[in-house]
Amino acid sequence: MKSLKNADSFFDGLETWKPELTVLRNIFLSAELEETIKWGTPVYMYNGKNVVSIAGFKAHFAVWFHNGGFLKDSEGVLVNAQEGKTGGLRQMRFTSIDDIDRDILLSYVYEAIENLKQGKVFKPNRNKPLIIPAELEIILTSNSSLKEAFDALSKGKQREYADYISSAKQDKTKTARLEKIIPMIEKGVGMNDKYR
Which Pfam families match (predicted)? Predict the structure, then answer.
């Protein structure tokens, strides 16, 4: 993923969904949200807190509400794209520019802002048990310096690595992922540090 300096460079570089995502951008800017780039995509914030972001996919484009789990969803348009993984995120999907209803979208944005003002912010479960997958455990047991580096990481970073390996469905994918993360663990960096 190339590094983006600002949202203009994101929109200038779009090859698909450019008109559609630009409409969404203009709607969010009209709500006086602050625009920035996080995780390689535009994020719109209120008082420094994430409200909504946009993304384009192969078959659809979408809006992510960062604390969408608190939204009433009176129109029934929100989905949890990764049930069981994304507690607070909710997504509104579109397949055409004609699907965008400015009034409905703004009502959700204003509700999300009001929720932030009331202190309704999703807090991830930090007490979730750390389950090291067998493939990672074997490598850590056989390499004491790697185990030491892994143990020096925060529980959150350890969990990111464990989840990354556990979520692979095929053995060859797990092997490839292990090869990728070993140097990162040795350097003492987290799986997702580059996005922070």
Answer: DUF1801 (PF08818), OmdA (PF13376)
Burial state string for 72-111 with b = 16 or more CB within 10 A and e = fewer than 16: ebeeebbeeeeeeebebbbbbebeeeeebeeeebeebbeb
Token pair of 128 as six digits:
């979730």
What pLDDT, on the 0 to 100 scale, is given for residue 176? 92
Ramachandran angles phi, psi of 62, nearest 5°: -150, 165
For the record, the structure tokens of 130 come out as 């750390």
**pLDDT grade, residue 1 (50/70/90)?**
very low
Predicted TM-score (pTM) above 0.70: no
CB 28 within 8 A of CB 52: yes
Distance CA 50, CA 68 (A): 11
Domain enclosing residue 165, as ranges: 134-195
The total domain count for the chain is 2
**64 strand-pairing partners:** 53, 91
| Co-location of 82 and 110 in the same domain | yes
Range name among 2-11, 55-64, 89-98, 173-182 with the lowest pLDDT average: 2-11
Structure tokens at 106: 């703004």
Same domain, 111 and 51: yes
